[in-house]
DNA sequence: CGGCGTCTTCACGGCACCGTAGCGCCGAGG
DNA sequence: CCTCGGCGCTACGGTGCCGTGAAGACGCCG
């Protein structure tokens, strides 16, 4: 029952290190150094999880992630150098489930991989993605940023918290009372219309067509939920 | 699988020593003695990492670093004599990722090279760079200096610590409470406005236009973060 | 088809948050 | 003893965020 990992990275030294770490942690790693081979290897071996460098020769990690995501729901963890800066926002929207910034602690990487594999161990993911395919937004929790189509969307603190609350459990409906408690900290019910207003403001910023919301959906008579497609 | 190192140094004795050390540590080194050859060799062999002496005949290490950085993101580790001091500031902004001061312990050099290559082992880098392209500042942690556009920026100890705390995890937002703990050592919350004031003082010194900060950014309702692009 | 409840949309005022300037203490160095 | 830089603290003004109220649109029911 050892998980098979596909590592996509063009840095041989890093690959070697990952090999040692992953094997000692009970994973079965395989390695490729560029995007084309990554896709072929993925289709061939169907790994349980993919580790993907953002910077690759030729086909970028972004394209690889998109391609894999197009044909599988396999967990993808991105490796990014902090110097990548400009590409980060775009990279995160490509369908990755989580990311770690180089240099990273091997333990942290393994913890995040395990968390993606078995939902039991709760390392809060750095990235949350919601919305139907073709209309997704990505939330970078520690950076407190939200992006769509590679553009950062400016949100107020309250809007951000509300979005995160919904995105943490996509498809699950939250009543206004629950949201008031989780986001506002109100212990016992206040005016629930507050929630309506802020959902509306949020939609105005993140929905391409706020009149037909696809990311934050209304469940009439109950509350709201985040859509995933 | 073994990392290829391009060593740029005009001192044959040092080169010989480096050859022995690097080979014994599993690297595959190649050597050139001046800047022009360095560039040619780099374009030709595309090494995994570059070791670069700051003092070179003809084209200086600074220019070489800039040229390489202009066409590749390859890790560059500078070798500097402690007597260089004056040139160091300029050299550090040329795009190097780390540096070691001669005379150095072979073990330290190798550790720093590994840290740049396999990002897993975290040797804290000597150099931190933050700010958007074209408006970057470089922090030399052991030297306790900060420079922008080749000019050293004078900071007080507190300002320096605050800047380093933010720069160690760029893009990530820090609350004022966390900063008070990390920088001031206050265990449980004091007046967080203290942080505001020092951020402002810091900006006055490092931001070209303090009214439109690009290096230290405010995240309203949350805290501050260092920008990278 | 009509009515009612639910949700959406807009406008507006209070206020928390942040940026900025200024003052005073304290310790280091002359 | 005096000077000066570094730091803590307060005060004040502006900006944008948030909460409320009220009217308009929509869907679900009889």
Automatic annotation (TrEMBL), chains A, B:
<dbReference type="GO" id="GO:0005829">
    <property type="term" value="C:cytosol"/>
</dbReference>
<dbReference type="InterPro" id="IPR047671">
    <property type="entry name" value="MtrAB_MtrA"/>
</dbReference>
<keyword id="KW-0805">Transcription regulation</keyword>
<feature type="domain" description="Response regulatory">
    <location>
        <begin position="4"/>
        <end position="117"/>
    </location>
</feature>
<dbReference type="GO" id="GO:0000976">
    <property type="term" value="F:transcription cis-regulatory region binding"/>
</dbReference>
<dbReference type="GO" id="GO:0032993">
    <property type="term" value="C:protein-DNA complex"/>
</dbReference>
<protein>
    <recommendedName>
        <fullName>DNA-binding response regulator MtrA</fullName>
    </recommendedName>
</protein>
<keyword id="KW-0597">Phosphoprotein</keyword>
<dbReference type="InterPro" id="IPR001789">
    <property type="entry name" value="Sig_transdc_resp-reg_receiver"/>
</dbReference>
<dbReference type="GO" id="GO:0000156">
    <property type="term" value="F:phosphorelay response regulator activity"/>
</dbReference>
<dbReference type="Pfam" id="PF00072">
    <property type="entry name" value="Response_reg"/>
</dbReference>
<dbReference type="InterPro" id="IPR039420">
    <property type="entry name" value="WalR-like"/>
</dbReference>
<feature type="modified residue" description="4-aspartylphosphate">
    <location>
        <position position="53"/>
    </location>
</feature>
<dbReference type="InterPro" id="IPR047673">
    <property type="entry name" value="MtrA_REC"/>
</dbReference>
<dbReference type="Pfam" id="PF00486">
    <property type="entry name" value="Trans_reg_C"/>
</dbReference>
<keyword id="KW-0238">DNA-binding</keyword>
<dbReference type="InterPro" id="IPR001867">
    <property type="entry name" value="OmpR/PhoB-type_DNA-bd"/>
</dbReference>
<keyword id="KW-0804">Transcription</keyword>
<keyword id="KW-0902">Two-component regulatory system</keyword>
<dbReference type="GO" id="GO:0045893">
    <property type="term" value="P:positive regulation of DNA-templated transcription"/>
</dbReference>
<dbReference type="InterPro" id="IPR036388">
    <property type="entry name" value="WH-like_DNA-bd_sf"/>
</dbReference>
<feature type="domain" description="OmpR/PhoB-type">
    <location>
        <begin position="125"/>
        <end position="228"/>
    </location>
</feature>
<dbReference type="InterPro" id="IPR011006">
    <property type="entry name" value="CheY-like_superfamily"/>
</dbReference>
<feature type="DNA-binding region" description="OmpR/PhoB-type">
    <location>
        <begin position="125"/>
        <end position="228"/>
    </location>
</feature>
<dbReference type="InterPro" id="IPR016032">
    <property type="entry name" value="Sig_transdc_resp-reg_C-effctor"/>
</dbReference>
